[in-house]
């Protein structure tokens, strides 16, 4: 994806001078914006007016991470809803926006002011106050109990914040810590979405991110849950998951953010996928694969797209077909769940993670 100054005409509108090369096609900025917009809105079809009964209005939950993908998703859905207001004076759905602050995050004041600015730029939507990861201990009723399955017991007299620090520092490897944190994060977001009566969580993940997740899941012994992890539709969490940006590469979302009349500013700091890998020892499998795909995947976009397409085609295990969700990560367990008499069961991935946790 390169910008040039040559005088070629855009292949879509045949009028304007092309400024971008997208998947080997020369496009002008406005045709590129339309391209990204149509890819995402096509994935939002089921939330249109025609799928609503009477005055019904849906509530959709959009977690933003500070990275480019969820921000682009917010901007695009905002313009869709603005158009709906212009045409019908109402919207087909409400957006509830949340942002989680992870432990050891520096620059909380900056995050807070960025978040405030975002809420001002997109005033149509319901921005929840910033949430800390440790709030999962309170919002997810089963969390403390489920942690004991990993050998992490409650300790009296500590604050939730201290408890979360202890939980994360009980992981003996960077990969186990990242794995644990991402499960806690997902459970926190799902709890918040349910608390807000949202029917769906809209994840901002790009194709590149989904490919990294699929490969990392396999590497972590979570291959059995790949298809459930990246599928659109009802999740075992009891809420819908939807990935509207799944047909776009991260670099395309970055280009889009810059091509807008009012460009989107996003932090690349904290976005580990953009940082060079300094030491393998200090890198989790997730970050390693993310940076590999960001640096190499661009050169082989069709292979990356295939990773996601193939992984999605693996049989998705749905609740009710005798599938027992893992008590901790809420992903399908692959075995028959022989010792599931008390319905507390860990999947293979969580069992492996547990081996790297000192209780
Ligand atoms: Zn054009
Ligand atoms: Zn599990």
Automatic annotation (TrEMBL):
GO terms for biological process: protein urmylation; tRNA wobble position uridine thiolation. Keywords: Cytoplasm, tRNA processing. Pathway: tRNA modification; 5-methoxycarbonylmethyl-2-thiouridine-tRNA biosynthesis. InterPro entries: CTU2, Rossmann-like_a/b/a_fold. The keyword Cytoplasm applies. It is found in: Cytoplasm. It comes from the Eukaryota. SUPFAM superfamilies: Adenine nucleotide alpha hydrolases-like. One of its GO terms (cellular component) is cytosol. The keyword Transport does not apply. Plays a central role in 2-thiolation of mcm(5)S(2)U at tRNA wobble positions of tRNA(Lys), tRNA(Glu) and tRNA(Gln). May act by forming a heterodimer with NCS6 that ligates sulfur from thiocarboxylated URM1 onto the uridine of tRNAs at wobble position. Prior mcm(5) tRNA modification by the elongator complex is required for 2-thiolation. May also be involved in protein urmylation. This is Cytoplasmic tRNA 2-thiolation protein 2. The gene is CTU2.
């Amino acid at each position: 994806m390169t910008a040039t100054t040559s005088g070629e005409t855009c292949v879509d509108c045949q009028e304007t001078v092309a400024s971008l090369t997208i998947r080997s096609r020369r496009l002008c900025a406005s045709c590129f914006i339309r391209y990204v917009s149509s890819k995402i809105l096509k994935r939002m079809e089921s939330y249109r007016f025609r799928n609503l009964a009477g005055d019904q209005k849906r509530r959709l939950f959009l977690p933003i991470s500070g990275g480019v993908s969820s921000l682009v998703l917010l901007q695009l859905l905002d313009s869709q809803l603005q158009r709906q207001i212009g045409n019908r004076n109402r919207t087909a759905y409400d957006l509830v926006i949340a942002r989680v602050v992870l432990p050891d995050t520096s620059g909380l004041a900056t995050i807070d002011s960025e978040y405030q600015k975002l809420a001002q730029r997109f005033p149509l939507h319901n921005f929840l106050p910033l949430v800390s990861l440790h709030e999962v201990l309170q919002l997810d009723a089963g969390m403390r109990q489920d942690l004991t399955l990993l050998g992490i017991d409650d300790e009296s007299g500590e604050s939730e914040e201290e408890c979360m620090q202890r939980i994360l520092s009980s992981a003996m490897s960077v990969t186990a810590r990242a794995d644990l944190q991402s499960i806690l994060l997902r459970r926190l977001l799902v709890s918040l979405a349910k608390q807000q009566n949202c029917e769906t969580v809209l994840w901002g993940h790009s194709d590149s991110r989904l490919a990294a997740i699929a490969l990392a899941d396999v590497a972590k012994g979570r291959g059995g849950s790949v298809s459930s992890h990246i599928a659109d539709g009802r999740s075992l969490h009891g809420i819908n998951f939807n990935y509207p940006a799944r047909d776009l590469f991260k670099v395309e979302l970055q280009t889009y953010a810059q091509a807008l009349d009012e460009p989107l500013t996003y932090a690349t700091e904290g976005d580990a996928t953009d940082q060079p890998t300094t030491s393998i020892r200090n890198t989790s499998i997730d970050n390693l694969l993310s940076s590999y795909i960001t640096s190499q995947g661009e050169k082989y976009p069709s292979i990356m797209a295939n990773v996601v397409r193939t992984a999605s085609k693996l049989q998705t295990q749905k609740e009710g077909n005798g599938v027992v969700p893992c008590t901790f990560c809420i992903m399908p367990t692959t075995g028959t769940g022989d010792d599931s008499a008390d319905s507390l069961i860990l999947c293979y991935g969580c069992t492996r993670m547990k081996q790297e946790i000192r209780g």
